[in-house]
Design brief:
GO terms for molecular function: isocitrate lyase activity. By secondary structure, the chain is of the alpha/beta class. 48% of the residues lie in helices and 11% in strands. It has 19 helices and 14 strands. β3, α8 and β4 form a beta-alpha-beta unit.
Length: 530
């Protein structure tokens, strides 16, 4: 509804109450309503799910319409990211947020820093989703409040052109609230536990849940060793649990991202149930590393299965885990993805050990032969050494093409001595276009970096500490932080405003009129940054 219509509607409501509401101003009511357009997390989940569905359709029409996100471990980080996107690009179109289970474990657990092994409190995940959206809604309130103040100034000075411009800015305002893809790990338990957690995450505002096919109580980070997968039916039960949660809460457009860790997982905890040859359980078991049993006396409490009329013993480790045949990871990934999409998942996530477009595409091509519109969420992981990987990819491509690479040592390409070489330049260009190229060739709809803000916080803090506690002293902060904030237009240089002091002053004026004791007067030192 246009702003002026909202004001009129509020004024009519106030008049209907007689004199008892005479001190309530309709325009102030309309402003507060606009500054809080999302009343619940479910409002957010429904709104953002629709955005994701539209973006997925746009990508299907043209791969140039891929989307992106950065992982955020605090509401403030998410807020500043979206404020920055709006400032630099004018729109949040195609820009999402990612909630990383890794960063929740490392930064948000009451146990202290933990590895990404599902040991942190499951409640910390929906709590972070809620925190993030609280900060994004506050960014809306802050920015709209500044527009309202400018509108009042324009009216008081009689600047009708400026007034029209600002009224249009209000009516076409783009919220800071964007979709969040939230990591539910392996569901933190059985399918019922997955459903309960999914419901809490959706109620907090999540429109997209990313769930992986690892064993919940053996879950490992996607870039660690020792990953153990589950049979397909176990994983599909959790996918269905997520879908039931979305449907129960009235979010039919909710997105389920099915992640397979099979490429790097050589172990399973269970042998799948199979009712008949060729069913999904039989296909899962076909990847087990087995040896034929010809002498029953050699069995000592072993598990055996029948395969092609032969009695086979799957290789079992002292940990009681069963081993897959070497070299089957890609085949298992393809099967995982096809089965997940055929059973309710919307997007795929294939966790890889390196950022190699053709490796990803080789699997996606096989998936798309069965499901043509299959598309991926892909982790542009900080666990990859991007510089070394791409320099080695260029080295290998040049060598294969017969180009002279004698001036380079493949194993040492990370060295600074190669930074200004043609090989390094080509590698950097491939990194620069990786997302666009992978979206076109490998079916990647959404590119994310799981834990970038973990690294940026460490890097910026190291830089400040080095300067401030060193020879630079206070200049380390002023030159390294504040001066840059001012000159680069970083909004939180006015940290009182960013924390909500002006919003509070506006409310005090609504509530108390001329008697309001406001914080943003002439003696507020924040005015030095005007």
């Amino acid at each position: 509804m246009p702003y002026q219509n909202m004001v009129t509607a509020a004024e009519e409501m106030i008049r209907s109450q007689g004199d008892s509401w005479r001190s309530i101003e309709g325009e102030s009511v309309a402003r507060m309503q606009l500054q809080n357009r999302f009343h619940t997390g479910l409002d957010i989940a429904r709104y953002t799910a629709k955005i994701m569905r539209e973006d997925m359709a746009a990508y299907d029409a043209d791969s140039a319409n891929y989307t992106q996100s950065l992982g955020c471990w605090h509401g403030f980080i998410a807020q500043q990211k979206i404020i920055s996107i709006k400032k630099h690009f004018g729109s949040t179109k195609g820009k999402y947020l990612y909630l990383s289970g890794w960063m929740v474990a490392a930064l948000r657990s009451e146990f202290g820093p933990l590895p990404d092994q599902s040991m942190h409190e499951k409640t910390s995940v929906p709590a972070l989703i809620e925190e993030i959206y609280t900060f994004l809604k506050q960014a809306d309130a802050r920015e709209l409040g500044m527009i309202f103040r400018d509108l009042d100034k324009a009216r008081s000075s009689g600047d009708t052109a400026r007034e029209r411009f600002l009224l249009n800015a209000i009516d076409t305002y783009q919220t800071h609230v964007v979709p969040i893809i939230a990591d539910i790990d392996a569901g933190f338990g059985n399918a019922e536990a997955t459903y309960l957690l999914a419901r809490k995450m959706i109620e907090a505002g999540a429109c997209a849940l990313q769930i992986e096919n690892q064993v919940s109580d053996e879950k490992q980070c996607g870039h660690q060793d020792g990953k153990v997968t589950v049979p397909h039916e176990d994983f599909l039960a959790k996918i269905r649990a997520c879908r039931y949660a979305f449907l129960e809460l009235g979010v039919p457009d909710g997105i389920i991202v099915a992640r397979t860790d099979s490429l790097g997982a050589g172990l399973t905890k269970q042998i799948a149930y199979s009712a008949q040859a060729g069913d999904i359980g039989d296909q899962y078991n076909s990847f087990l590393d087995c040896e034929e049993v010809t002498d029953l006396s050699a069995l000592r409490g072993d598990v055996v299965i029948e395969r092609d009329g032969k009695l086979m013993r799957p290789k079992r480790l002292p940990s009681n885990l069963f081993q897959f045949k070497a070299g089957t990871g890609a085949d298992r990934c393809v099967l995982d993805c096809i089965v997940s999409l055929q059973n309710g998942a919307d997007l795929l996530w294939i966790e890889t050990e390196k950022p190699h477009i053709e490796q990803i595409a080789s699997m996606v091509d096989r998936i798309r032969a069965v499901i043509p519109n299959a598309k991926l969420v892909y982790n542009n992981s900080p666990s990859f050494n991007w510089t070394l990987n791409f320099r080695q990819q260029v080295f290998d491509a040049w060598a294969e093409a017969g180009k002279d690479v004698s001036g380079y040592e493949r194993g040492a390409l990370m060295s600074v001595i190669y930074d200004t070489t043609p090989l390094a330049a080509e590698a950097d260009d491939r990194i620069r276009t990786f997302q666009k190229d992978a979206a076109a060739r490998a079916g990647i709809f959404h590119h994310l970096i799981t834990l970038p803000t973990y690294h940026t916080a460490a890097l910026s803090t190291d830089s400040l500490a080095k300067d401030y506690f060193g020879e630079a002293g206070m200049l380390g902060y002023v030159a390294g932080v504040q001066r840059k904030e001012i000159r680069e237009g970083i909004a939180c240089v006015k940290h009182q405003n960013m924390s909500g002091s002006d919003i509070g002053d506006d409310h005090k004026e609504y509530f108390a009129g001329e008697a309001a004791l406001k914080a943003g007067g002439a003696h507020n030192t924040m005015n030095q940054f005007a």
